[in-house]
Design goal:
The complex is a heterodimer of chains A (about 375) and B (about 140).
Chain A (H helix, E strand, L loop, with lengths): L1 H12 L2 H4 L2 H18 L5 H14 L17 H10 L3 H12 L3 H5 L4 H7 L1 H12 L4 H8 L6 H11 L4 H13 L1 H12 L2 H4 L11 H18 L4 H15 L4 H25 L3 H4 L2 H29 L20 H13 L6 H26 L1
Helix pairs in contact in A: 3-4, 4-17, 5-17, 6-11, 6-16, 6-17, 8-19, 8-21, 9-10, 9-19, 10-11, 10-21, 11-12, 11-21, 12-19, 13-19, 13-20, 15-16, 16-17, 20-21
Chain B lengths: L2 H7 L2 H44 L10 H26 L5 H10 L5 H11 L2 E3 L5 E3 L3
Antiparallel strand pairs in B: 1-2
The chains are: A mainly alpha (about 375), B mainly alpha (about 140).
Chain lengths: ~375, ~140
């Protein structure tokens, strides 16, 4: 009888119930909220559901030494997490993004690329804010890139510069990307007048196939000569786009934008979620990162809008300044938000395709910003 | 260390200023190149046209030579056929026209509807009598 009770006590001491504390419970609740937001509210479900479930996985209290937890060297999750820490997954996601992105609206009106550039000011202003809060330069750079609103870029840079902050930075980046429809509209209405929001854009010109094929090659060479540290991200982005546009490699493009990106998204989401263990995640630094994340999105949105208004001072045919908010590279959500805010004023004003131009240029801009920050703080 | 002191101690101002400038310069340069791309391509097309026309100059009335425009048209139609044959190799033969049209639209081919119409009228694409279409190999 005593043996049975001993065995039972030993078994109980190894269960999650015995090992749990309040931090795991909080994180499990956070994970459930993410899953709810993804399924019930359709907020970025392809990201929030894997991340949310990953949070649940990572916050099951386990006995250390059994090779179960993500931070234990010989665990399955650790091997899968290697793709995050070594920076493999983000470039593969960019390959898929390139294979599904149509750059023609950007090629039709290259001026709108500057709005994507302006929005990257959010990255560097947040970098300053993080330094001011006492973060080290490598941490501040990883936090600043949240303002690029690009999950893979944020994870890539954090993996290189501040691996311990991957969890909170990824959670902050993806959470705010999912909340773009909530964060951006008030800023857009505050910084633009009704007359400005009513501006209609000219129809873009037709872009030839040759331009669409030449662009990824020229874009890759120029951007990577300028910021070689962005090579993994931009190289795969432009490669994926070339596969799409050249037509002859359609099956490769199909694989990149379906199987590869889906597989990588699953593995990235679940392992990033699992890395946010309560004892590692619930710290003062994480709260600081979350606050700075919201700040970075707001500043990036405002920078794009203000720059669009500045450009209008020099243009005979004005652009709708709402397009500046699409420079925040949460593709295609921020472009959809521009469409939505524009249509609130005039339901017949279709801004979505025009907004895709700064939106996709923001992806390029945030990757360049990541490369620049990496080379500065190395 | 926090505040402005921390920023200055870590060269924050310089990094931020340079960083924004570099990102801006990169995208400005790219936008300038992209804006000139249609002109460069047009120039190359014109040079190709001139080169093709010069090959057939044998008299002052060379521009009325039926061969010149036909060759240029043949080059254009060959490229169009090549592009559409790549799509049909993916769809499979015989192929339904709506699928060919949708696929051409998705792949960003220019004016797919009128191009397919031209291919049909010119006899490059022929119906198989069962609602599908094939390439005319004659």
């Amino acid at each position: 009888m005593e043996n049975i009770l001993d065995l039972l006590a030993k078994f109980w001491s190894n269960t999650g119930f015995a090992l749990a504390d309040y931090r795991y419970i909080i994180m499990i609740i956070v994970g459930i909220i993410f899953i709810y937001l993804g399924i019930a509210k359709h907020y970025e479900p392809l990201l929030l559901i894997p991340i949310g479930f990953g949070i649940l996985i990572g916050n099951i209290p386990v006995f250390k030494g059994l090779g179960l937890a993500i931070y234990e060297d010989n665990s399955v999750l650790h091997y899968l997490y290697f793709g995050v820490t070594s920076g493999i997954y983000p470039p593969l996601i960019f390959l898929g993004i390139g294979a599904m992105t149509d750059f023609s609206t950007m090629l039709a009106r290259p001026l709108l690329m500057l709005l994507g550039a302006a929005a990257q000011a959010g990255v560097f202003i947040t970098f300053l804010g993080a330094l001011a809060l006492g973060f080290a330069p490598n941490e501040a750079a990883s936090i600043g890139i949240i303002g690029g609103a690009d999950g893979p870029t944020a994870i890539f840079l954090s993996a290189k510069l501040a691996p311990k902050l991957i969890g909170p930075i990824a959670i902050a980046a993806y959470s705010y990307m999912a909340l773009v429809p909530v964060i951006q509209p008030p800023i857009m209405r505050l910084l633009t007048s009704r007359e400005e929001r009513l501006i209609r854009m000219e129809e873009p010109r037709e872009v030839s196939k040759k331009e669409k094929i030449i662009f990824p090659i020229v874009g890759f060479l120029l951007c990577c000569f300028l910021a070689p540290a962005a090579l993994p991200l931009l190289g795969l982005l432009f490669f994926g786009n070339l596969l799409k546009e050249c037509i002859v490699a359609e099956r490769l493009a199909e694989t990149a934008r379906n199987s590869i990106i889906d597989t990588t998204t699953i593995l990235l989401g679940i392992t990033v979620g699992a890395s946010t263990q309560g004892d590692v995640f619930l710290t003062g630094k994480s709260i600081g990162i979350f606050m700075l994340g919201a700040f970075s999105f707001a500043i990036a949105t405002a920078s794009g809008l203000i720059f669009a208004k500045i450009i209008n001072l020099f243009l005979k045919v004005k652009i709708n300044p709402l397009l500046g908010a699409a420079g925040v590279s949460a593709v295609p959500d921020s472009a959809r938000v521009v469409q939505m805010v524009g249509q609130d004023e005039d339901p017949s004003n279709f801004l979505l395709m025009h907004a895709m131009a700064p939106n996709v240029s923001g992806v390029i801009g945030s990757a360049i910003a990541a490369g620049v920050l990496w080379s500065f703080v190395l | 260390m926090t505040g402005f002191e921390a920023i200055s101690a870590n060269d924050g101002w310089a990094i931020a200023l340079l960083g924004v400038s570099i990102v801006f310069s990169g995208l400005v340069s790219l936008s300038l190149i992209i804006s000139q791309l249609p002109k460069v391509l047009q120039l190359l097309e014109k040079s190709k046209e001139i080169f093709q026309k010069e090959k057939f100059v044998i008299s002052d009335n060379y521009s009325e030579q039926p061969g010149c425009n036909k060759i240029q048209d043949d080059l254009d139609i060959n490229e169009v056929i090549r592009n559409f044959k790549m799509l049909t190799s993916w769809i499979g033969e015989p192929f339904p026209l709506p699928k060919l049209l949708t696929t051409a639209q998705q792949r960003g081919l220019v004016r797919p509807h009128s191009t397919i119409n031209t291919l049909l009228k010119s006899g490059y694409i022929i119906p198989d009598g069962k609602g599908y279409f094939n390439w005319n190999n004659n």
